[in-house]
Every structure is written in structure tokens, then in C-alpha cells.
Structure prediction request, 260 residues.
Amino acid sequence: MQFAVIGNPIAHSLSPILHNCAFKALGIAGFYGRYLLEKDTSFYFLRSLHLKGANITVPFKEIAFQSCDEVFGVAREIGAVNTIVFDKGKMLGYNTDALGFYQCVESLNPKNALIIGAGGSAKAIACILNTKRIPPTIINRSAARLEAFKSFECATFENFTPKIPYDLIINTTSAGLTDSSLPMDSAVLAPLLKASKFAFDLVYGKQTPFLNLAKSLNVAHSDGKQMLINQAILAFEIFMESQNISINQETLRHSMQNIL
Prediction:
């Protein structure tokens, strides 16, 4: 059985390490790789790769949603898919980002949240927080991307005027992934962080400028590593269920939790 993570860029992804470790720990004959998809390539091309399933990362989560034959669970509300399986010629879509993120912050009992960015991951987080009765506010550089967030409180950076402190501040942009940039002007971001209880950056594997700023202000913070692990566990469960393979949940969680 072959699986892969698909995105652009993709070389930094740790998903193959997580999934291949799980295959080994569970004694399942499977392989999980990376696939760089050009941004102008039709997503339907994936059907020819003979994969049993795949994880989808930036910038293809919304394209994946549109390309699936059927979409299940919270992915339908989000409009973004990060996990797909191929079954009898059909591409079936799911979203494990949402619950994977919530499992990271559930114990904090946040009352509200500020989400920076307006991509597929932002929509997943906004939807799961709203479902859990944690009202999110979404801010983004451009107004066009905010069209998908009409049911939430949202604003552009230019028009954003914070009215209350936010318990959670979440960076869903790629700022700091390959450069030293912040997701927004530090003159605005620093006071927001200082008044918050926790800062979360979806970027994982490095201390981003966003997290460095939170640290300098003595704000508790985390990168996206635990979210990556959580969503990978949920995705692996979907992959194996689609193949009618029973797995030991404790072994799966132990194998992924301790590899990174």
C-alpha cells in the first residue's frame, strides 16, 4: 500500500516519518512518501498515481475539496480537505486538521481566539472553535480571502481594531516558514500577544519570528508539531479503516507521539 503527502513546497514535511514509523510499529506493509505537485497541475492527476490515500498540505486543501467525489464530516463545513482516500475509482475527502488542532488547546479552556490568515487551515480552525463555542475572529492581509469567512467576525489588517483581549492567537500563515518575517506588523501584533494567554503557530520544526516575539513577551506558546502528530494519527486511522485493517490505537499513538 502506498500513501503520500502532497503539496508545494513539500521537502520539509515530517509526515512520512510519522506514517512510516506507524506502519513499522503496527507490522503493516505500507509506504508513505512525499509528492511535489506543481501549482498549475490539475488535481485530478492524483488519480493516476495509484495511491491508496494521501494527505494534502498547502496550497491544495481547498482544491482537494473541490476535486473530491464525496466529502465527509467537518470538511464539508470547512470547504478544505487534508486527507483523501481512493475507493473504487472515487476520491473521498476528510479534514483532520480541525480536530487535530482542537486537541492541542482543549485543556486551555480558551474563551475566544484570534486567527491570523485566511487559508484552508484557518477555516478548519475557525470552524472547530466555533463548534466548541469558542468564538474566533479572523484577520487577513487581503479582503478577497475573507469572503469564505462571512459567518465569522473578520477584518483586514488595515481595518482591524481589537475590542477585547484574545486568549488564543493563532498564526496560520506561512510567515516564518522560509524567511524571518512576521505574519503582520509587530507594532500591532506585540500588544495583541502581550494581552493573550497562549500563542500557537501552525508552522512546525522551527522557532518562528511569531513564536520568538511571544517568547520575548513571556507568553506561553507552541509550534504546530503536536497538531501535526494529532492530525496524522486521525488520518492514519482513516487510511486503515478504508482498507479494512484493524489497528491497535495505543500502539499507533505511541509510535507517532515519540518519533519527533
Q: What stands out?
A: The mean pLDDT is 94. The CA atoms of residues 79 and 129 lie 15 Å apart. The two ends are 24 Å apart (CA to CA). The longest strand covers residues 2-7.
